[in-house]
Amino acid sequence: MCLHDGILELGISLIRELRCLGNKDPIEVHHCHDLTRPSVDLLFGLDDNIQVIDLCERYVIKNVFSDDMAKTFQSYWIKPLAVHFTSFEELIFLDADAVLLKDPATLRNNEGYKKNGTLFFYDRVINTNQYLNKRNTNAKGDLEGPIYLHKWLKDFDYQRFKLEYADPLPAFKNSFAYRGKTAHEQDSSMLLINKRNAEKAMNVLWYLITEHRFIYEFSWGDKEAFWLSYEFSHTPYFFSPWGASVVSTTPNKDMERHPDTLCGSLAHFDPTLDASAPPELLYVNGRSLVDPVPFRLHKLKLLQPNLVFNMLPTHVTPRQKRRAPSGKGEWPECMTGMGSTPASPQLMPYLYRRRQHFQAISMGFIEPLLECVNAGESLPVIPEPIKKDTAPPSKNVDKQTA
């Protein structure tokens, strides 16, 4: 994972949650000159199977990066830099705000991952004229010509990587990104990558993050760089067969106002290839589920009710194949008309434990971090009050019985 001092508490609470879920993997924490010595000491003190690596320092010392170049990685772009750098052959990358419901190491048994060497997850389908989906605008203001992705696939410098252009495979041609239906293809909050046979993909990834991102903004942050590296290098890769979901948000009153349209944090189901297997919520990617102040205080004017602290995410968009929402919602995060179903019973106790660890480290308490707190039995569900019939009386009602 990648951390900086501003999200240290999120990162520590995630590390503790991984251990509480039974994960025993070694953990690398990457940063770019933005973890102070006390933060590093705290990480070492809380886990004895962890490494903390200042990537930018290493590349500057080796004269690979200038100081100015290194500073550009004090952003989302440190994530693909960490993926490229790590010595782990099989890696699981997690964003610090991922709320887990199971040990992600179990995903190494996924058939798609074992066959192709990656496990990627889709983002929401948001069809805007941006990034890979960008088209030119004519004098009348109308969009014209091919999307950027189509032009880039043909103009990419394949020879630089000892590759040749190849017509995209049918599966890729059927993707929302290729068909110009979305500006966002991949969510990079969780990645599984086996680097054993991915040398060319890693070479392309290095090019994308050190050169091409300065030529054209092809992605919101880093997320499209991963699957594109595999696509351009003709290296097999695998996406979850299920589209993105979101959880309900309490401040936005999703379930009261529009229960078929949820607008909360991104969620993903277990990427099983067996469509008959019961849906199993894997994780939710949302700082607003853990941090009581998940936004920057100096940007209060831009605050949306679906982005503030979400106390009770009771529902989730049902597991389904990736598809576009049925219309525009209040916010880009909304999955309009895609339905809702009760969230996994495991979500609340695991979320409770994650919040306990987050609050403990935020307040400077260490001992609570050493325990895997069990939330215990939940309160019985309080039935909703019976709604009164507010329909006007029929004109044909007998006056004697009215």
UniProtKB/TrEMBL annotation:
<keyword id="KW-0328">Glycosyltransferase</keyword>
<dbReference type="GO" id="GO:0016020">
    <property type="term" value="C:membrane"/>
</dbReference>
<dbReference type="GO" id="GO:0006493">
    <property type="term" value="P:protein O-linked glycosylation"/>
</dbReference>
<keyword id="KW-0735">Signal-anchor</keyword>
<feature type="compositionally biased region" description="Basic and acidic residues">
    <location>
        <begin position="385"/>
        <end position="402"/>
    </location>
</feature>
<feature type="region of interest" description="Disordered">
    <location>
        <begin position="383"/>
        <end position="402"/>
    </location>
</feature>
<dbReference type="Pfam" id="PF11051">
    <property type="entry name" value="Mannosyl_trans3"/>
</dbReference>
<dbReference type="GO" id="GO:0005794">
    <property type="term" value="C:Golgi apparatus"/>
</dbReference>
<dbReference type="InterPro" id="IPR022751">
    <property type="entry name" value="Alpha_mannosyltransferase"/>
</dbReference>
<dbReference type="InterPro" id="IPR029044">
    <property type="entry name" value="Nucleotide-diphossugar_trans"/>
</dbReference>
<comment type="similarity">
    <text>Belongs to the MNN1/MNT family.</text>
</comment>
<keyword id="KW-1133">Transmembrane helix</keyword>
<dbReference type="GO" id="GO:0000033">
    <property type="term" value="F:alpha-1,3-mannosyltransferase activity"/>
</dbReference>
<keyword id="KW-0808">Transferase</keyword>
<protein>
    <recommendedName>
        <fullName>Nucleotide-diphospho-sugar transferase domain-containing protein</fullName>
    </recommendedName>
</protein>
<keyword id="KW-0325">Glycoprotein</keyword>
<keyword id="KW-0812">Transmembrane</keyword>
<keyword id="KW-0472">Membrane</keyword>
